[in-house]
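task queued by scheduler; priority normal; single chain, no ligands, no partner chains; default sampling; output format set to structure tokens
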Amino acid sequence: MKVDSGSDWMSINRAAANRAYDAGASAAFAAAMAETGRSSQDGADRPDFTSMTRQELRDWVNEEIRSGRMTVEESAPFLPLTFRLDETGTYEIPAETDAQRFDFLAKTRSNIDAALSMNDNHFAERLRFVLDYMQSRQSA
């Protein structure tokens, strides 16, 4: 599966993320964490989420799916991080041509705070999953 933008990505992401969370994504995450703890990787395989382009994040998510470390459902909460709108908020800036680097760990923490301030505990929980997953892969 290729993670890519769609015409209605916001509603697609929300529905998929809700299904993943409701279906027990946290149990799958615990299993992935246990598997990650048993495997060893060298430093070259560790992603640096503190300085990554949106395309690099998309590529990393796709690789996690292809390798079986992440399901498509588990990838859903990562999708909003890979989108960026122009200054008018109308059009997506293509990730393939956008060289701007982001600190996705800080961005996710900020989004968790924003979700909590809007009393959206469900979305905040899904973002915590993203943050925990990224931190586990970065330090693996």
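post-processing summary
- The longest helix spans residues 121-138.
- Helices lie at 9-22, 25-38, 54-67, 72-75, 104-117, 121-138.
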